[in-house]
Write a structure and sequence with these properties.
The complex is a heterodimer of chains A (131) and B (75). By secondary structure, chain A is of the alpha/beta class. Chain A has helices at 46-51, 111-114, 118-127, and strands at residues 17-23, 28-35, 42-44, 62-66, 71-84, 87-96, 107-109. In chain B, the strands form two sheets. A four-stranded antiparallel β-sheet of chain B has the order 1-5-2-6. A two-stranded antiparallel sheet of chain B has the order 3-4. In chain B, strand 3 and strand 4 form a beta hairpin. Classes of the chains: A alpha/beta (131), B alpha+beta (75).
Chain lengths: 131, 75
């Protein structure tokens, strides 16, 4: 007898939006981000980086990110901490790039944060059991 | 402006960006619970222009969680 299927998830928003706290050297912001298992890095708008005390234009580090439609060279910097779903990570690298204004979220919570979330670790171990 | 529940503030607007001075936050989920509305605008840039000079903790959030009709996400 086959196992009953678990209840289907309905993603009404078409994404998984989460509140994320970004702490910088001067203050903090909470913004909504999309949980994005396709993003290597967490991505925040340059304006939010500026709000919390960074200047992305002065960042010496740049990285080329490959988006769904093109490649873009963007600043990468280290924020003091990122908190989400009860997990707080210190000294986290983020890339600075804005999502289109039609997006209801401002950033992407990428794999460099997700790999530290207990729920994601469990998910990963299930989809990659040989690792 | 008075301190209100975040979801109460969000429901008052349709497709607008909100700048909210942070009140209580549920640390277990990072969910902001209360705050004081400082600015609302359909234009995100106007919110960023004001938040630039606000040095205390704040929430920037859109009033909706979904994309406009006809849009889908492919980040």
């Amino acid at each position: 007898m086959s196992k009953p299927l678990p209840p289907k998830i309905i993603l009404e928003e078409g994404i998984i939006p989460l509140y994320v706290e970004i702490q910088g050297p001067t203050t903090k912001r909470i913004i909504k981000m999309a949980l994005d298992t396709g993003a290597t890095f967490t991505m925040i708008p340059p304006e939010i980086a500026r709000d919390i005390g960074h200047d992305p234009t002065l960042s010496k580090r740049r990285i080329e990110i490959s988006t769904a439609s093109s490649s873009v060279l963007v600043a990468i910097l280290k924020v003091k901490s990122i908190s989400c779903l009860g997990t707080k990570l210190k000294n986290v690298e983020v890339v600075c790039h804005s999502l289109p204004p039609e997006s209801p979220v401002e950033g992407l919570l990428g794999l460099n944060f997700l790999v530290h979330l207990p729920t994601f670790i469990e998910f990963y171990q299930r989809i990659r059991p040989s690792i | 402006m008075k301190v209100q529940e975040i979801e109460t503030i969000r429901k008052q607007f349709h497709r607008e960006w909100l700048l909210i001075a942070l009140g209580k936050v549920d640390d277990s989920t990072t969910t902001p619970l209360t705050g004081r509305l400082m600015l609302h605008s359909p234009h995100r840039d106007e919110i960023y222009a004001k938040s630039k000079n606000y040095k205390k903790p704040a929430l920037i959030v859109y009033s909706e969680d979904s994309f406009p009709k006809g849009y889908a996400a492919a980040f």
